[in-house]
Amino acid sequence: MRQNLTLSHLTIKNVAADINTFVQKINQILEPDHVVPEDPWILKEYLSNKLQNQGIPDYPNSKLVGDFRDYWFLDTTKLENQQLSK
Fold first, then answer.
1. Which candidate, 8, 75, 2, places its Cα nearest to that of 48?
2. Which residue from 59, 25, 32 is spatially nearest to 44, judged by alpha carbons?
3. Residue 38 and residue 53: Cα distance in Å, rounded?
4. Beta carbons within 8 Å of 13's beta carbon, 6+ residues apart
5. Which of 52, 82, 80 is nearest to 67 (CA)?
6. CB atoms within 10 A of CB 20
7. Which of 3, 6, 8, 84 has its CA at a distance of 20 to 30 angstroms from the CA of residue 52?
8. Rounded distance between C-alpha atoms, residue 21 and residue 56, angstroms
């Protein structure tokens, strides 16, 4: 995700404002020990959409692959609403 953040030319501050959260929350999601399963997917989808809108191919994720709707344990409502955990 860090690579896609770099490719998007967005700052963490921009991302946090767009997703209606804090810079600290985005930094927390980017850490490998993050524990809320939906949050990394929300950031992944957000960055992927931003890159797609700019015509930039996103960098492949090694852990978050496929469509989040295919994972039974994820709360898709949170993902579709970009609702990060508190």
1. 8
2. 59
3. 23
4. 23
5. 80
6. 10
7. 84
8. 25
Query: Rounded to two decimals, what is the model's pTM?
Result: 0.78
- Give the SS3 label for residue 47: helix
pLDDT at 13: 97
CA–CA distance, 79 with 41 (Å, rounded to integer): 7
Question: C-alpha 81: how far from its chain's center?
Answer: 12
User: Could you tell me if 19 and 82 are in contact, meaning their C-beta atoms sit under 8 angstroms apart?
Assistant: yes
What would the pLDDT profile of 13-61 be if each residue is shown by its tens digit? 999 999 999 999 999 999 877 678 899 999 999 999 999 999 999 888 8
Whose structure tokens read 């998007």? 8
